[in-house]
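Standup notes, structure subgroup. Blocker cleared on the fe (ii) ion input:
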Amino acid sequence: MLAAMAMGDLDLFLSSVDNALRTLSGSVRSGRPRPEAGPGVELAAQQRRLSASLMRVNHVGEVCAQALYQGQALATRDAGLRRHFEAAARDETDHLAWTQTRLADLGARQSLLNPLWYAGAFAIGWVTGRLGDPVSLGFVVETERQVEEHLAGHLDRLPPEDRESRAIVAQMKDDEVRHADAARERGAVALPAPVRWAMRGAARLMTATAHHI
Ligand SMILES: [Fe+2]
Ligand SMILES: [Fe+2]
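Run returned:
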């Protein structure tokens, strides 16, 4: 029994390492096709630069989403909840792959700080998971809600001509709403306001940095 548990933990640990390497090396494949936007329009240099910055920020967000869900899945002792987190993480893998290919279309590079973002988000996910499943689910609700708001802001800022990026961001936004609703239904508790403010502050720091680096 003990040996079996240890094997289970080892499997989980190895799958976390595997996920980190795949995420950071860019060797992820989406399960769903990238959202279609019709025939592409040639973007002016300035539009392309703006789109690249915004999509780099979104790619960093998806790197963090991978790490958070991995950390939370590793921390829970509830196998059902772990499967729930893993299912949401598969959508996040789609988002990661879509933003990654869109960045490449735009001729832009990924954030140089991705390993740092991944490590930080994984630690936050794991610690949050250790605070108990209702708190962990509450963290998902608040994160996804903030991401949804952030993506809505990007739909205002992305050039109207950049239909490809807009189609990706719109689908991601729908998925994040679904993730928040599912976590709420599974018994999430509301996080205290100071925690929500701290999360917002951390997200601001990340987005401001990823805009440039
Ligand atoms: Fe996402
Ligand atoms: Fe999500």
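Discussed briefly. The chain is about 75% helix and 0% strand.
Next: hand off to the docking folks.
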